[in-house]
Amino acid sequence: MHKVHVIGLGVDLRDLSLVISKRIESADVLIGGNRLLDIFRDHTALKVSIGSPLEDVIERINQEMKTDREIVVLTDGDPLFYGFGKRLIEALGREMVVFHPNVTTLQVAASRLKIPWHDIQTVSLHGRKDIRPLLAALVRNDRVAVFTDPDFHPAKIADELIWKGIDAFDMYVFEDLGTESEKVRCFELEDATKMTFSPLNFVIFDRAKQPEISLCLGLDDDSYLHEKGLITKKEIRAAGLSALEIEPDNIVWDLGAGCGSVAIEASILAYDGSVLAVEKNPERIQYISQNIRRMGAYVVEVVHGEMPGCLESLPDPERVFIGGGIGEDNKVLEEAINRLKPGGRLVLHLVLMGSLTRARDYLNDLKWPYSITQVQVSRSKSTAGDQRLEALNLVKSPKTVMPDPGSSPGQALIRHPEVIGFIGFSDKSESSTGCSLSPPRGREPE
């Protein structure tokens, strides 16, 4: 059985070496996208077009391999750089695949701009339903390259970024690289939305300005636009984020987001996930949007609505933070617990002792043990040529962890998360309290 040769074609076919050209000439079967196969329209080999689903193409390759034919797969650039190579290795095995890489589109585009490409973050929007990978890359990088898609062409991408309030990047669009119709143009995002581009395109975003405020954990409260007194203080913010134990790919809900301070700093930790800041007050929604723009926290998505109804359409979270109180009943808390994924965590910051008591009673009814921790935070104040410590508001914090469905025998497959902490606030208290909860193992909550 012959090995499958995967050949990357550069932007100019004259770049092919004599050895590679002979390998293509001797192929019995040529497999590739329609554009690449058309380049070899006069080749006598059997031609197989790569389309969706890829499983069908891989199955066809397996069938052709059994006939002992010479198979060549044609790709753009480097097959292992956002290409078909990974899938072929997984399907056929490393020992049955030989790669022949060529110059990538990124390398050519960077050479046109006369910039180094080793530190350009690259994302692919092929087959995606959203531009989340691009948003995450723009947060952390000054230059980002994009393999576009028919659904996410340059004009559509620019429109999506404007809708997100992003205005810090110029957009370089490369069309028909290596051909007589090659174009390289730079646009402001607004201008790009009005243009039509060649289907053969590539994009590089170049940062034109830095965020007004550098995004980091523990930002001073004054860094955020907010209603007076309505912000989770930075020390308590840090305690809540620590209790959440956010992982990079998590979906995070911030319920009752206020000015968005928790959501924005959570996005630093969930940099490959998404953060949903849910708020019903229109003025606070404006604060969240402005803070996202000022800090470049593009991973945060603002959700304007009344809870729990507006939560129905959101993706199930791995982490939930409730910082705006739990309302007059337990509907929001109940919805958060029901939607939390196995292994997920829930943290609450509660203002009123009554709310803490009600949340505790609710968890008692579920037969879930919990603990309460009080945290004291004081800040220095200058007084009479010296300094004194002035206590901040009281905070109580519970958190919850959802058991994984693959638990071992003897462990209940509990749909509810394990509560790990409560955090509540009081305008008059001078200390803070937190509690941790975990569901009982081996039985369903009653």
Description:
The chain has 446 residues and is an alpha/beta fold. It folds into 3 domains: 4-103, 3-Layer(aba) Sandwich (Cobalt-precorrin-4 Transmethylase, domain 1); 106-207, 2-Layer Sandwich (Methyltransferase, Cobalt-precorrin-4 Transmethylase, Domain 2); 221-437, Vaccinia Virus protein VP39 (Rossmann fold). It is 28% helix and 24% strand. The protein contains 13 helices and 21 strands. It has helices at residues 18-25, 34-39, 54-66, 85-92, 105-113, 132-140, 154-163, 189-192, 234-244, 261-269, 282-295, 331-339, 353-365; strands at residues 4-9, 29-32, 46-49, 71-76, 97-100, 121-124, 143-147, 169-175, 183-188, 201-207, 251-255, 274-279, 300-304, 319-322, 345-350, 370-374, 378-383, 386-391, 399-401, 421-424, 433-437. Strands 11, 12, 13, 14, 15, 16, 19, 20 and 21 form a 9-stranded mixed β-sheet that branches. A 5-stranded parallel β-sheet has the order 3-2-4-1-5, with helices on both faces. Helix 12 (331-339) links the parallel strand 14 (319-322) and strand 15. The chain is elongated and about 85 Å long.
Features:
alpha/beta, Rossmann fold, Methyltransferase, Cobalt-precorrin-4 Transmethylase, Domain 2, five-stranded parallel beta sheet, Cobalt-precorrin-4 Transmethylase, domain 1, elongated, 446 residues
Note poorly predicted spans.
406-446
The amount of helix comes to 25-40%
Q: What is the CATH first-level class name of the largest domain? A: Alpha Beta
Question: How many DSSP E strands?
Answer: 21
Multimeric organization:
single chain
Please state the overall shape, judged from the principal axes of the Cα atoms: elongated
The average pLDDT is: 86
**What gyration radius follows from the Cα positions, in whole Å?**
27 Å
Number of domains: 3
How large is the count of helical segments? 13
Portion in beta strands: 15-25%
The CATH topology of the largest domain comes to Rossmann fold
Which structural class do the helices and strands define?
Answer: alpha/beta
Please name the CATH architecture of the largest domain.
3-Layer(aba) Sandwich
Query: Main β-sheet: number of strands, strand sense, barrel status?
Result: 9 strands, mixed
Termini distance?
A: 61 Å
For the record, what is the CATH homologous superfamily label of the largest domain? Vaccinia Virus protein VP39
